[in-house]
Each structure stands twice: as structure tokens, then as C-alpha cells.
Design brief:
This is C4-dicarboxylate transport sensor protein. Pfam families: HATPase_c, HisKA. Among the domains are: about 130 residues, Beta-Lactamase (2-Layer Sandwich); about 90 residues; about 160 residues, 2-Layer Sandwich (Heat Shock Protein 90). About 55% of the residues lie in helices and about 20% in strands. The protein has 16 helices and 20 strands. It has a 6-stranded antiparallel sheet. The chain has a 5-stranded antiparallel sheet with strand order 2-1-5-4-3, with helices on both faces. It has a 5-stranded mixed sheet with strand order 15-17-18-20-19.
């Protein structure tokens, strides 16, 4: 290969890097130039997206304003008002009027109701003392709405009480008689409910007056802050109207940038640093309010930066891919044979990788099958443990049950021998009576045997509607011999109706028996053991409660009482699986088993199950 060819080859190898460098530099310049454009776009999207929230806030304020706008006219139409204005010197009429105003204010939830004459003199109010709530001096109004009402209109005005500092919105209407204005009725409502409706959202909402002063805000620190520096004329107007105390007004430094009509970018400096907000503003023309919603601009700016970075990274990825393709083509031109060998090698690697993936898939299928088999084995083991627990319970109850059988058998034998003797003596009635008693004894033993057989058989896996009374009756009958043997008293609070729950009768019976046996074990040292069995019903759930008179559950035991293989009994007295199995049985029913200490007693175990509804009962019947 000649030297000239080598020089040319080196130049061709360097050329892609030069092109890629120029491309990336151009992309970087574009990103820097268009980042402000992206930021403006996302800020506009934020502003447009908050239009619905702003409309809801404006509608809420308008509804609140409209709700009370007709109230002064209704009060002014009361005959008592007109009568008092005809004779304002009458103490009786004044007392009646003030009582009427007080009752009206209480019924409306208003902060005050006031009656004045045509000169603005306060004649009566809902309060016995004025406390200057309206900004009255010498019992006279000076609020701007007074002039509008005297002129024959309806006055509405927001102001801050000059002594209490409480903000309020005023409605006023003239009282006419024969076409002349005799007086004015004014009603004041608190605007605290406005602010309560504005709080809790992701965005801030403020309401400003014509002087750009915030008087309603979702942020307390923005109240009575002016977004525009107040000049001397504005301060004089506010002072004359006494709408706000001037000493409470503060400027809120900000810088505004208009993005489009009614959407601006506010940079607000509240003393803790500048914070950007995207704002949308709507006007409530009748009240002269401007409602503004402010959403943090940081999210839009971050999104713009991320988009710019994403564009640059995408360009970098394109450049890298282009460089790789370029290098690949150069290498193909340089050494075609090497590329063909590389292709063959790649095919081999792909085949190997495919084989590895197939092997991995095969192993994954085997693991899935193994897991399914394990889950099936676990369920089978749990079923066996449940069955073993029932058989163990039957074994522990066998002595008491044997005694329960021996008594009827002995009595049956005695009654049979007596019946034979009675027959020999031709005493048929006595013999018939003994035979009836024998039948009763046999029925008693048959009932016990039936409950034992039902308890010992394997339960069905599916849940169904189950009668709580039936389950508890069977459990009590099975446990009665053991209760008698231990000298324990069972206090059963039977429900007035027969609630049905979603579960399984045999498994639920096993859980109840297990809890009653545990209660007996916990009262071995109790002189007069008692077990309380209660049923509590609600609309959606039914609770079965078992309480003993033992020593209760220590704190460390209460936390792990349902753990497998945990037991407080002596070694050899139990495996610690009874409560764990019971917990899982109730969980399978969609219920909950809980343990706690009962006030004045020992341990308290609560079974909470879903109550069966009519559709469940219908499905079970089908």
C-alpha cells in the first residue's frame, strides 16, 4: 500500500469525527437558543391548564356573592323596619327592631345587620354595641357603598374592620317609602369562608381589588400585600374610604412578564428569595375583584430544561449512531473479507445467545412449574395440618366425650333392664316410659356422633354462606364435655337473629373450637373459669368474640401470637400451629382474626367476617 494511499485513508478516518464535532456544536447552540422558547411554551401550557381551576374559583366566589345579594332587600321589606323608621325615637320599636336584626344575623350566619337613616346615622344593629365593625364614626357610615345606596342603587363593598381587624363583605339596600329613601339596611358577612374554599390545592389563589391589594388569599402571608406600589393618591383614597388600615399594608416586590392575554409570569420576592409563578387572572366585574391563580413556574422550567437536555442527548445518540455507521462502512470498504468474517462470527454469537435464551426460557418454565407444584404442596400441607389439628382436638376431647357417651350408655342399660322387669310384671306403661327414655339417650349420642363426624371430615375449599348460630351451636355441643370436665362456665350471648357470613362451616367451627380450647388452657389456674362467647353484627360484617378470664396476653406475646410454631405452652403440649392455622383460615374467608387484652378479663380473640348478602344466599341456593 503506497504512502499516498495511507495518507488518504487517514484523512477518510478523521473526516467523520470532524463532521460529528461540527454537528454537536450546532446542536448545542440550538439548544441554548431554543431553551427560553421551550420554557415559554411550557409556562404557557401551565397557564392554560389552570383555566378550569380558575373558573371554578371564580364561580365559587360569584355564587357566594350572589347568595347574599338579595338579603338586605328582604330585611328592608319587613314591616317592623318601616315602622321604626317612621318613629326612630320609640324605644319599644328600637328594641323590637334590634331583636329582629339580631335574630336575622344569627339565622343567616352574618357578622352584623345594621339599620341607618338616610343621613347614614346608625339607628339599630344586631349587636348591642357597635364595636366599630363597619368603620362608623359617631354612629355614622363612611363606607363608599353608602353613597351608592343613597343614590338609589345597591351597595356591595369589601373592607377590614377598623377595630377587630376582621375582614368582611357588605351588602346594603335602601328602604323606600312613597318613593323616597327613608333608611338603609346593611348586612356584613365574613369572608373567611372564601379563603377556606381556596386552600388545599396545588396552586395558590389570590383576590385583588382595583388598587392591586390582596385581600383574600390561600396564603396568609400574602394578605394585605400590594402587588403594585401605592402612590399618594391611592393611599389617600384608601384612607378616605377606610377600607384597610394603612399601617397594615405592605408592598410585595414582584416582576411581571406577560406571556399572553390574562397569563403572566410573576417573579415574587417575599423576603425568602424570588419565586416564579405562572398566573392566570379573571375579573369579577360587579365586585371589581381580580381573581388570580398562581402555579409554581419551577416545574415548567424544569420540564423545559429536561426537554432541552433530552434533545441534546438524542442528537448525541444520533451522532454516535452515525459515527458507528460511518466507521462500519469505512471498515467494509477497507477490508471486506474481515467484515464478512465478523458477520459470520456475529451470526455464531447470535445463535449462541439464542440457545442461551432458549435454555433460560426452559429453566424459567421449569421454575414456574416447580413453584406451582410447591404452592400446591403448601396448600395440601396446610389442609393436612388443619385436618391433623382437628384430629388432635378430637383426641384431646376424647376423654370428656367418652364420659359423655358412658353416662347415656349406663342409663340406657339400666332403663333396658328395668323395662324387661316391667314387662315381666305386665307394667306396660312403665316399660314404654323406659323405652322412650332409651330413645332419648340414643338421640343424644347420635347428635354427638354426628357433630364429631362433621367436625372430622375434610372441609370444602370454596367459601359459601354459613349460619353463625349453627356453627356456634355445633362447636358448643362438641366442647361441652370438655367445659364440664374443666368446671368452666360458658356465657353465650346469642344474637337475636341468625346472621350468615361468607366462609366454611367446618373450618369456621374448627377455629371457634380452637379459640375455646385455648381459653380453657389459659384458665388452668383460675378458680372459677368463665368463657364469654359473643356475636356482634353490623351492616357489612359479623364479629365472633371469645374472651377468657385468664391472665391475658403479655405485650411480647400479643405481637407474635399468630406466628407459626409460636406457643406459650410447655414443651410437648402443642406445636404452636393452632392460632396460625386459624388466622389463615379466616384470612381465606376474606375476614380477619385479631387478639388483644379485654378490659377486666383475660385475652380477647375477635373473628371478623363478611356478612352474606341476598345475592350470596341466592348463589348458594343455586
Amino acid at each position: 500500500m503506497s504512502e499516498a494511499h495511507l495518507v488518504k485513508l487517514r484523512g477518510e478516518r478523521r473526516r467523520p469525527f470532524v463532521y460529528i464535532g461540527v454537528f454537536l456544536f450546532a446542536i448545542a447552540i440550538c439548544v441554548l437558543v431554543f431553551t427560553p422558547v421551550l420554557e415559554r411554551y411550557f409556562l404557557l401550557q401551565t397557564g392554560r391548564g389552570q383555566a378550569v381551576t380558575l373558573r371554578l374559583a371564580v364561580d365559587s366566589l360569584r355564587l357566594t356573592l350572589d347568595r347574599y345579594s338579595r338579603i338586605p332587600a328582604l330585611i328592608a321589606a319587613r314591616p317592623a323596619i318601616a315602622a321604626f323608621l317612621q318613629d326612630p325615637q320609640s324605644a319599644t320599636l328600637k328594641a323590637d327592631t334590634e331583636k329582629l336584626l339580631s335574630e336575622t344575623a344569627t339565622a343567616l350566619g352574618a357578622k352584623g345587620v345594621y339599620l341607618e337613616d338616610a343621613n347614614g346615622q346608625i339607628l339599630a344593629s344586631s349587636s348591642s354595641r357597635f364595636d366599630d365593625p363597619l368603620g362608623a364614626v359617631a354612629d355614622r357610615f363612611y363606607r363608599p357603598y353608602f353613597d351608592r345606596v343613597v343614590a338609589g342603587g345597591i351597595g356591595q363593598y369589601f373592607a377590614l374592620a377598623t377595630t377587630s381587624g376582621e375582614s368582611g363583605y357588605f351588602y346594603a339596600t335602601p328602604v323606600r317609602s312613597k318613593g323616597r329613601i327613608k333608611g338603609i339596611v346593611a348586612v356584613r358577612f365574613s369572608v373567611n369562608q372564601f379563603e377556606a374554599n381556596l386552600r388545599g390545592g396545588a396552586s395558590e389563589i389570590i383576590v385583588r381589588d382595583s388598587n392591586d391589594i390582596v385581600f383574600i388569599s390561600s396564603r396568609d402571608d400574602w394578605n394585605l400585600r400590594s402587588f403594585t406600589a401605592l402612590d399618594e393618591d391611592a393611599q389617600n383614597v384608601i384612607a378616605a374610604a377606610r377600607q384597610y388600615p394603612l399601617e397594615l399594608l405592605r408592598d410585595l416586590p414582584n416582576r411581571r412578564t406577560e406571556l399572553e392575554r390574562n397569563i403572566e409570569l410573576f417573579e415574587i420576592n417575599d423576603g425568602r428569595g424570588a419565586t416564579g409563578f405562572v398566573t392566570s387572572t379573571s375579573l369579577i366585574a360587579r365586585a371589581g375583584w381580580r381573581v388570580t391563580i398562581l402555579s409554581p413556574a419551577s416545574e415548567a422550567r424544569a420540564l423545559a430544561r429536561l426537554t432541552a437536555i433530552g434533545i441534546f442527548l438524542f442528537a448525541l445518540l444520533i451522532a454516535a449512531i452515525t459515527l458507528l455507521i460511518w466507521q462500519r462502512q469505512a471498515r467494509m470498504r477497507e477490508r471486506f473479507d474481515e467484515q464478512r468474517e465478523a458477520k459470520r462470527s456475529l451470526e455464531i454469537r447470535v445463535e449462541q445467545r439464542t440457545q442461551e435464551l432458549n435454555e433460560s426460557n426452559r429453566q424459567l418454565v421449569e421454575e414456574i412449574e416447580e413453584r406451582k407444584a410447591t404452592e400446591k404442596q403448601l396448600r395440601q400441607t396446610q389442609t393436612e395440618l388443619i385436618q391433623a389439628g382437628k384430629l388432635a382436638a378430637l383426641g384431646q376431647m376424647s376423654a370428656a366425650i367418652s364420659h359423655e357417651f358412658n353416662q347415656p350408655l349406663a342409663a340406657t342399660k339400666a332403663y333396658a333392664e328395668n323395662a324387661v322387669a316391667f314387662l315381666d310384671r305386665n307394667r306396660d306403661d312403665d316399660a314404654r316410659s323406659n323405652v322412650s327414655r332409651i330413645v332419648s339417650m340414643v338421640d343424644r349420642m347420635s347428635s354427638i356422633a354426628k357433630h364429631l363426624r362433621n367436625f372430622a371430615r375434610r372441609p370444602q375449599e370454596k367459601t359459601k354462606p354459613v349460619s353463625v348460630s349453627s356453627v356456634l351451636s355445633s362447636a358448643i355441643e362438641l366442647m361441652q364435655p370438655q367445659l364440664t370436665k374443666n368446671g368452666a362456665e360458658l356465657l353465650f350471648s346469642k344474637p337475636p337473629d341468625d346472621p350468615w357470613v361468607i366462609g366454611g362451616d367446618i373450618r369456621l367451627q374448627q377455629v371457634v373450637i380452637n379459640l375455646m380450647r385455648n381459653a380453657l388452657d389459659a384458665m388452668t389456674e383460675t378458680a372459677a373459669p368463665k368463657i364469654y362467647l359473643n356475636v356482634e353484627t353490623e351492616d357489612e360484617t359479623v364479629r365472633i368474640v371469645v374472651i377468657d378470664d385468664g391472665t391475658g396476653l403479655p405485650d411480647e406475646v400479643e405481637k407474635q401470637v399468630f406466628d407459626p410454631f409460636f406457643s406459650t405452652k410447655d414443651p410437648g403440649q402443642g406445636m404452636g400451629l393452632g392460632l396460625s392455622i386459624s388466622y389463615n383460615i379466616i384470612k381465606d374467608f376474606g375476614g380477619r382474626l385479631s387478639a388483644e387484652n379485654a378490659s377486666g378479663h383475660g385475652a380477647k380473640f375477635t373473628i371478623e367476617l363478611l356478612r352474606a348478602n341476598s345475592s350470596d344466599m341466592k348463589d348458594a341456593a343455586e
